[in-house]
Automatic annotation (TrEMBL):
Organism placement in taxonomy: Eukaryota, Metazoa, Chordata, Craniata, Vertebrata
GO molecular function terms attached to this record: secondary active sulfate transmembrane transporter activity
PROSITE patterns: SLC26A, STAS
Keyword terms: Membrane, Transmembrane, Transmembrane helix
Entry-linked InterPro entries: S04_transporter_CS (IPR018045), SLC26A/SulP_dom (IPR011547), SLC26A/SulP_fam (IPR001902), STAS_dom (IPR002645), STAS_dom_sf (IPR036513)
Name this polypeptide is given: Chloride anion exchanger
Compartments where located: Membrane
Domain of life the protein comes from: Eukaryota
Keyword Protein biosynthesis appears in the UniProt entry: no
Predominant localisation class: membrane
Residues making up the signal peptide according to the UniProt record: none
Domain STAS positions: 519-714
Membrane topology: Multi-pass membrane protein
Transmembrane segments: 77-98, 104-120, 170-199, 251-269, 281-301, 338-357, 369-386, 406-426, 464-491
Length: 758
C-alpha cells in the first residue's frame, strides 16, 4: 500500500527477501522464443509481409507516389543543379586522392546516385566521393600498385610505363570499391548494420580529423608540383613530408600562387556563407566560380606551356567500358576493404541520421548498407571509386531546398552533361586548383581539434579515445589506424568495468535511501553492518579487483581471520585434550605453568585445512572470538556481523567469476559474517541456480529486493527493539515483515518507522 502525504509517501509492505517475494507474487509462465521460433517467423509468408519486404528493399516505391510535385519540384531542381556543380568539382578533386586520373572522379560522382535513388532511405544526403574514403582507397592503390611494380620483370615494368601504371591503379581502385560494396551488401542482407555502434562519435571525429591531415599532406605535391614517391606503410605521412621539404626548392611558383589564391578565396567565401546563411537564398558556389575563373585564366595565358604547370589534361567524352575486378586484389586487400566499408557506412549513416531527425522521418541502417553496397559495386564496375557522402555536398543539397532524392538524381544529370558533352572545357584546369578545392572542404574536419577540450570536460575516456585514434591514424596510416583505434576503444570499456568505482553506502536522512557515505555529512550506518556497492558487471577480469575493494571496505581479510581462528582453535583443542584448559563462567583458566607450544607445527599445516569452516562441535564450550583468549593467543577482533552487497548495477556475472564470488561469500560466512545480496533481477538468481552456485553454506535465501529490506531484516534478526528507533521525528508506518528464526520463517506485525535511528 502506498499513501501519498504532500510531497512524501508512506509505504506499507512486508520486508521482502527474494524467496519471500516469490512466494507472495507468483511469476507468470512465459514462452521465450527460441532460434527455431524466429526462423519459422522469418520463413513464414503473407501478403502483408511480402509488401513490407518489397517496400523496405525498394524505398522509392514508398516515397515517390507521395511526392508533392507542385510544392517540391522547383526546390529539388535548384538543389540538384547546385549539388551537381559541386559534385563535378569534388569528383575531379578527390580522384587525385585516389591517385587516378581526375576524369574517373566524375564516374564516382555519377553512378552511386542512380542506385541510391532507388534503394536509399535518406532524402537529403548526396552520395558520391568523400575525401576520407578517397584517401583510404588511395593508400591501398599506392601500396598494391607499388608492390606490382616491384615484382614485375623489367620487360614489362609498370613503373616504367605511365599508361600501364595508370591502368593498374585504376584496376586496384575499382576492385577495392567492388569488394567494399560486397562487404556492405553482405552486412546489410545479414541485418548486422549495428556494427556501426562500435565506432563511437569520439572515434569517428578523431579518425576523420587525422584523415583530413593525411589529405592535407597528400595534396602538397600537387600544390607545389613536386615528384613525391608513394608511401603507404606506417609513418608514411612523415616520409611524404620529408620528401616534400627536401625538394622544396623545386616548387612551381605558378602552382603555389594559384592554389594559395584559390584557398584564400574559398575560405573567405565559406565564412561568408556560414555567417550569412540565414540571409542568403542559396550559398555562394565559390568552388564553381573559382574553377571557371582558374580554367579561363589557365587557358587564356597558356599556363601549361608557359609555366609548366600540371593540368587535368585529356577528358574523354562519354563513358568507358566496364571493368572486371581482379580476384587476386580481393585477396590482398580484404582487410582494407572492410575498413573502407565500415567507415563509408558510418559517415553516411551519421549524416543521414542528422537530417532524419531534423525533418522527422526514419532511416533504416540495414537498408542503407544495402544501398551503399549496391552503389559501390555498380560504381566500381564502371570505373569509379568508393563513395559515401561528403558533408559539404550534402549540406549544399539540404540548404538549397532539396526535399527528396529527386534533387540527387538531378545532380547526377549535371555530372552526366559534363561527362558526355562539356568535360573538355575543364582540360586546362590546373591540378593545384583541384588540390586547393579539396583542402577547402577540410575546414570542418580540421576544426574538430576543438573537440579535445570539450571532451576533456565531459568524459576523459572519450577524450583519450579521440587523441589515441588521431595518433594511431596519423602514425600507422588510415587502415591500421582504424583497427588500432577500435581495439583501443574496446580496451577503454574493459578498463571501465575492470576497475569500477566501488563505494560504501550508508543511510541518508533516516529513510530508505542509501548513498555513498563520502558524499554526505549526515550519514547513518547500523552498527556491525557494512553496505558495499559494485557499479559494473563482475567477470573474469575484475573479480580480483572486486575482492580487493571489498576487503578494503570492510577493513580486514576474512581469509586471514579464518586462518588465524583455525590456528587458535588447534591450540585450544590441544590444551583441552591435555586437560590444561578449564572453562568457568568468567572465562578460560590455563592450568599449565611453563607450557610451551611451537607455532612451527601450526605454520606447517596445509593451507587447505586452515581455509575450512571452523568446527567446534567436539569442544564442550563455545568460543567468543572477540574476547581475550588464553595462552596469549591473538586473533584479530572484528565488529562486523552483516555485509550487504548492492548488485543493482551488476548487469551480468560470468561463469569464470562465479567461483571467485562464491569463495568470497564462503570466507565471510565462515567468520560469522552474514552476507546479503540486493538489487539483482530474477535472471541473475536463476543463472546462479543453473550453475549450482548454492550449497549448505551459500544459500539462495541471501537475496533481498532492496538495501532497506536487508537492513530491516538484519535489525530484526539481531533483536533490535523498537525502542532503539526514534519514532518522534516521523510518523510510524506499519510494516508486515518476515523474521528468520532458526532457519524457519514466520510472519509478525510490528510498528516500525521508515525513519530509523541507527
Amino acid at each position: 500500500m502506498i499513501e501519498p502525504i504532500g510531497n512524501q509517501y508512506i509505504v506499507a509492505r512486508p520486508v521482502y527477501s527474494a524467496n519471500a517475494f516469490g512466494e507472495d507474487h507468483r511469476k507468470k509462465e512465459r514462452h521465450h522464443k527460441t532460434f527455431l521460433d524466429h526462423l519459422k517467423a522469418w520463413c513464414s509468408c503473407s501478403t502483408q509481409k511480402a509488401k513490407r519486404i518489397a517496400l523496405s528493399l525498394l524505398p522509392i516505391a514508398a516515397w515517390l507516389p507521395a511526392y508533392r510535385l507542385k510544392e517540391w519540384l522547383l526546390s529539388d531542381i535548384v538543389s540538384g543543379i547546385s549539388t551537381g556543380l559541386v559534385a563535378v568539382l569534388q569528383g575531379l578533386a578527390f580522384a587525385l586522392l585516389v591517385t587516378i586520373p581526375p576524369r574517373y572522379g566524375l564516374y564516382a560522382a555519377f553512378f552511386p546516385v542512380l542506385t541510391y535513388f532507388l534503394l536509399g532511405t535518406s532524402k537529403h544526403i548526396s552520395v558520391g566521393p568523400f575525401p576520407v574514403l578517397s584517401m583510404m582507397v588511395g593508400a591501398v592503390v599506392t601500396r598494391v600498385a607499388s608492390d606490382a611494380g616491384t615484382t614485375t620483370n623489367s620487360s614489362s615494368n609498370l613503373m616504367g610505363n605511365d599508361s600501364l601504371l595508370e591502368d593498374r591503379k585504376l584496376l586496384v581502385a575499382t576492385s577495392v570499391t567492388v569488394l567494399s560494396g560486397i562487404i556492405q551488401l553482405a552486412l546489410g542482407v545479414l541485418q548486422i548494420g549495428f556494427v556501426v555502434i562500435y565506432l563511437s562519435e569520439s572515434l569517428i571525429s578523431g579518425f576523420t580529423t587525422a584523415a583530413a591531415v593525411h589529405v592535407l599532406v597528400s595534396q602538397l605535391k600537387f600544390m607545389l608540383q613536386l615528384t613525391v614517391p608513394a608511401h603507404s606503410d606506417p609513418f608514411s605521412i612523415f616520409k611524404v613530408l620529408e620528401s616534400v621539404f627536401t625538394q622544396i626548392e623545386k616548387t612551381n611558383i605558378a602552382d603555389l600562387v594559384t592554389s594559395l589564391v584559390i584557398l584564400a578565396a574559398v575560405f573567405v567565401v565559406k565564412e561568408i556563407n556560414q555567417h550569412y546563411k540565414a540571409q542568403l537564398p542559396v550559398p555562394i558556389p565559390i568552388e564553381l566560380i573559382m574553377a571557371v575563373i582558374a580554367t579561363g585564366v589557365s587557358y587564356g595565358f597558356d599556363f601549361e606551356h608557359r609555366f609548366n604547370v600540371s593540368v587535368i589534361g585529356n577528358m574523354k567524352q562519354g563513358f568507358e567500358s566496364p571493368i572486371t575486378p581482379d580476384v587476386q586484389i580481393f585477396q590482398d586487400t580484404i582487410g582494407d576493404c572492410f575498413g573502407i566499408a565500415i567507415v563509408g557506412f558510418a559517415v553516411a549513416f551519421s549524416v543521414a541520421s542528422v537530417y532524419s531527425l531534423k525533418y522527422d522521418y526514419s532511416i533504416d541502417g540495414n537498408q542503407e548498407l544495402i544501398a551503399l553496397g549496391v552503389s559501390n559495386i555498380f560504381t566500381g564496375a564502371f570505373r569509379g571509386f568508393a563513395g559515401s557522402t561528403a558533408l559539404s555536398r550534402s549540406g549544399v543539397q539540404e540548404s538549397t531546398g532539396g526535399k527528396t532524392q529527386i534533387a540527387g538524381i538531378l545532380s547526377a544529370v549535371i555530372v552526366l552533361i559534363v561527362i558526355v558533352a562539356i568535360g573538355f572545357l575543364l582540360e586546362p584546369l590546373q591540378k593545384s586548383v583541384l588540390a586547393a578545392l579539396a583542402l577547402g572542404n577540410l575546414k570542418g574536419m580540421l576544426m574538430q581539434f576543438a573537440e579535445i577540450g570539450r571532451l576533456w570536460k565531459k568524459d576523459k575516456y572519450d577524450c583519450f579515445i579521440w587523441i589515441m585514434t588521431f595518433i594511431f591514424a596519423i602514425v600507422l596510416g588510415l587502415g591500421l589506424g582504424l583497427a588500432a583505434s577500435v581495439a583501443f576503444q574496446l580496451l577503454t570499456i574493459v578498463f571501465r568495468t575492470q576497475f569500477p568505482k566501488c563505494s560504501t553506502l550508508a543511510n541518508i536522512g533516516r529513510s530508505n535511501i542509501y548513498k555513498n557515505r563520502k558524499d554526505y555529512s549526515e550519514m547513518y550506518e547500523p552498527e556491525g553492518v557494512k553496505i558495499f556497492r559494485c557499479p559494473s558487471p563482475i567477470y573474469f577480469a575484475n573479480i580480483r579487483f572486486f575482492k580487493q575493494k571489498l576487503t578494503d571496505a570492510v577493513g580486514f581479510s576474512p581469509l586471514r581471520i579464518l586462518r588465524k581462528r583455525n590456528k587458535a582453535l588447534k591450540k585450544l583443542r590441544k590444551l583441552q585434550k591435555q586437560g590444561l584448559l578449564q572453562v568457568t563462567p568468567k572465562g578460560f583458566i590455563w592450568t599449565a605453568d611453563g607450557f610451551r607450544d611451537s607455532d612451527e607445527e601450526l605454520d606447517n599445516n596445509r593451507m587447505e585445512e586452515l581455509d575450512q569452516p571452523i568446527d567446534t562441535a567436539d569442544l564442550p564450550f563455545q568460543i567468543d572470538w572477540n574476547a581475550d583468549l588464553p595462552l596469549n593467543i591473538v586473533v584479530p577482533k572484528i565488529s562486523l556481523h552483516s555485509l550487504i552487497l548492492d548488485f543493482s548495477a551488476v548487469s551480468f556475472l560470468d561463469v569464470s567469476s562465479m567461483r571467485g564470488l562464491k569463495e568470497i561469500l564462503q570466507e565471510f560466512i565462515r567468520v560469522n559474517v552474514d552476507v546479503y545480496i540486493v538489487g539483482t533481477d530474477d535472471d541473475f538468481i536463476e543463472k546462479l541456480a543453473r550453475c549450482q552456485f548454492f550449497d549448505d553454506e551459500v544459500k539462495d535465501s541471501i537475496f533481498f529486493l532492496t538495501i532497506h529490506d536487508a537492513v530491516l531484516h538484519i535489525l530484526m534478526k539481531k533483536d533490535y527493539s523498537t525502542s532503539k528507533f526514534n519514532p518522534s521525528q516521523q510518523k510510524e508506518t506499519k510494516f508486515d515483515f518476515t523474521i528468520n528464526t532458526n532457519g524457519g520463517l514466520r510472519n509478525r506485525e510490528c510498528q516500525v518507522p521508515i525513519e530509523t535511528k541507527f
